[in-house]
Amino acid sequence: MAGLSRLVLANFRNISSADIALCCSVNLFYGVNGSGKTSVLEAVHMLATGRSFRSRQHQPVIQADAEQLAVFGRLKDGLTIGVEKRRSGPGGRIRINREAAESSSQLAALLPLQLINSDSFSALEGGPGVRRRLLDWTVFHVEQSYLHALKDYQIALRQRNALLRRGKIGSDQLDIWDGRMVIAAVTLDRLREEVFERLGTVTRELLLDLPVSPLQQVSIRYRRGWKQGVDLGEALQASRDADMAVGHTRVGPHRADMVFTVDSQPAQSILSRGQQKMLVCALRTAMARVVSNSRKPPVFLIDDLPAELDDAHQVIFARWVSDCAGQVLVTGIERESTCRPWLSLAAPWNKPSVFHVEHGRISAELDPAPNNEWSE
Ligand SMILES: Nc1ncnc2c1ncn2[C@@H]1O[C@H](COP(=O)(O)OP(=O)(O)OP(=O)(O)O)[C@@H](O)[C@H]1O
């Protein structure tokens, strides 16, 4: 099991202070609009990534009139992690076991997260970057050395683009960065392709679980970012003139994508909005399953599921999640409808710990339930 046993917040949006004992399965936060439910999920996200999922800047997240916010978490294995952000100044401080940590990727490795909110459901309609980040999240959690290759590639790509924008350049200058890109790209592409194979297989298996619909005809393809059967070095050479004309590199792993089709048509042009949401849920579950098979099971943050899916699909998604999550934090407006999908599951997932959120105050409804026993 992975997850948080304790979450402490200070000056986080409308939550002045909170100290929450979390259970190892489902933690349910309910309350009226604007009470602060999503802020709890946002705080866990900040703890696991160093940033909010609602704002690029951290200033809006700090409580009005406060100088800084703090989020602290105790992981199931006893390790502690903390993030502080000050109103003035960049970045903020990250601590792991009270020691200053260097980067937020250290947090991400400790607390893999799957966030399901209304934004997640636009994954099919968004540009390739959205889907590429989902693939990269999975690869990073399966093989953390991937991050080095990705950073190497990004440095070489930035340098190549800077040269292209400068205009008059010798081909030997470009050769250096092409060479660096090719070396990193070999690792990136190999790891992405391997992980994609597993991701695609699990996603399709999950879709077969659903009532008959076009979802069962979904094909998923990995597009690596340059022409099949061609070495990236050759592809970069071939696109040099055009790259110079536009001032950036048009081929390479930074253009990779996962392409979803139904009968050779883009999936989003065939599937209903609800079917697209279930496809995203299947993909997110598959990501978590692939990661939990090789490392820690991720924590799911699910914002207002009843607003997104009908009752039957909520139950299916809750079952998928319970098969691969380390822990779940879920929000909703009404207590009963938010609890319902989880109640039909096997223990401990059918006994949510319930919290009422009101004007930024969070109160546990019951004493810790029997499922609060954290086990190995
Ligand atoms: N920096 C801030 N300082 C104080 N309050 C804030 C700050 N930023 C946002 N708020 C308020 O904090 C609350 C945060 O709401 P949050 O989005 O967490 O609510 P929610 O319960 O998820 O609501 P909904 O059901 O409408 O999505 C809102 O009332 C918002 O106006």
Describe, in plain words, how this protein is organized in 3D.
There is one protein chain. By secondary structure, this protein is α/β, with parallel strands linked by helices. The chain folds into 2 domains: 1-112 and 299-368, P-loop containing nucleotide triphosphate hydrolases (Rossmann fold, 3-Layer(aba) Sandwich); 124-295, RecF/RecN/SMC, N-terminal domain (Glutathione S-transferase Yfyf (Class Pi), Chain A, domain 2, Up-down Bundle). It is built from 11 helices and 15 strands. The chain has helices spanning 37-49, 104-110, 128-142, 146-166, 171-207, 232-238, 240-246, 267-270, 273-294, 311-322, 335-343; strands at residues 4-12, 15-21, 26-30, 68-75, 80-86, 93-96, 99-100, 113-116, 218-223, 257-262, 265-266, 299-302, 327-332, 353-358, 361-364. The strands form 3 sheets. A 6-stranded antiparallel beta sheet has the order 2-1-4-5-6-7, covered by helices on one side. A 6-stranded mixed beta sheet has the order 8-12-13-3-14-15, sandwiched between helices. A 3-stranded antiparallel beta sheet has the order 9-10-11. Strand 14 (353-358) and strand 15 (361-364) form a beta hairpin. The N and C termini lie close together (6 Å). The model has no long low-confidence stretch (mean pLDDT 93). It binds adenosine-5'-triphosphate (ATP). The site of adenosine-5'-triphosphate has 15 residues, from helix 1. One of its GO terms (molecular function) is ATP binding. It comes from Microbulbifer aggregans. Belongs to the RecF family. This is DNA replication and repair protein RecF.
